[in-house]
Amino acid sequence: MINRVLIRLKIIQIVYAYYQNGSKNLDSAEKELFFSLSKAYDLYNYLLMLIIALTNYAQKRIDAAKAKLSPSTEDLYPNMKFVENKFAAQLSINIQLNEFITNQKKTWDNNQDFIKELYDKIITSDIYKEYMTSSETSYDTDRELWRKLYKTFIFNNDSLDQLLEEQSLYWNDDKEIVDTFVLKTIKRFDESQGANQDLLPEFKDEEDKEFARRLFRRTILNEEYYRHLISENVKNWNIDRVAFMDVIIMQCALAEVLSFPNIPVSVSLNEYVEIAKLYSTPKSGSFINGTLDGIVNHLKKDGKLTKN
Fold first, then answer.
1. Do 75 and 110 share a domain, yes or no?
2. What angle do CA 25, 268, 302 make, to 5 degrees?
3. In the beta sheet, which residues pair with residue 2?
4. Are the C-beta atoms of residues 153 and 127 closer than 8 Å to each other?
5. Segment 156-178, tens digit of pLDDT
6. What is the pTM of this model?
7. Residue 268 near residue 256 (C-beta atoms within 8 A)
C-alpha cells in the first residue's frame, strides 16, 4: 500500500525533524521513519473499519426504531438493503482487517457523534436513495455503492480530517493518499474470496522498503555534498538565505537523482516540485525546479550523473 509518493513525503518530514531536534541520531530517525510509515498503514485499515462502523450504526437505528413504544409499520418492517450490503458484510469478516482490529484495539465506538453526522448525510443523498429503491441486489451493485459513498462523503471530509488529526499527528498529511488506496481496495474486492480477500500489503515489495531506507540515509549522510551543489547553483543567493524546507526538499531530490539510476530524472524532479508546493512557500516550486535543473545539467556535463 505504501507507495513511493508517500515514502518521499515521510522522508521530507523526518529529515526536517532530524535537523530541528538536537540529538541527530540517524538510527533513531530511521526507526521514526518506518514507524511513521506504519501509522499510514494503520490509517488505511482504520478507514476500512469506518464502512463497518456505519453499517453497524444503521443496524442500531433499525433496532431502536423497532423498540419504540408505538413503532410504525416502517419501523417494524424496514428496508434492510443497506445493512445487508454484501460488500460491507464481506469486509466485516475479513481475516486481515479483524487481525488489525484485535492487535491494534482500534474502534470507532468513541466517535459516535461523527458516525451519526456522516450517516445522516449518506441517507439523504441521491446515491443512497437510488440504491435503496433499486430492485437490483447483486454483489457488484453493493460494492459500487460503497465506492460512490466513500468517494463522495469520506474522501474530502473536513470533520473527518480534524477527528483523525486529533487521534494521531502522523495522520495529518496521509489521508489524501490513503483514500486512494481504500478506493482501490473496494474496487478489487471479489465476492468469491470471502473472508480471505487480501487487503493491500504495507509495502508492495522489499524493493520499496529498501528505497525508503536508502533514500533517507543518503539524504543525511551526503548532506555536505548536496548542499555544496545547491550553493553553487543558487544564483545570487547565499544558501543560508534559502528557505530551510526548500534546502531539505532539494537535498532529498539530489539523493534520489544520484542514488537510483533506474528512476528517470524527470520523475524525481517532478515529485519534489509537487512536494514543494505542499510544504513550502508559493514560489518554492519554480525555484526548486530551476535550481535542481541547473544542478542536473552541470552533473551531466561533468559526467557525474548517469542514468539507465
1. yes
2. 90
3. 203
4. no
5. 999 999 999 999 988 978 999 99
6. 0.92
7. yes
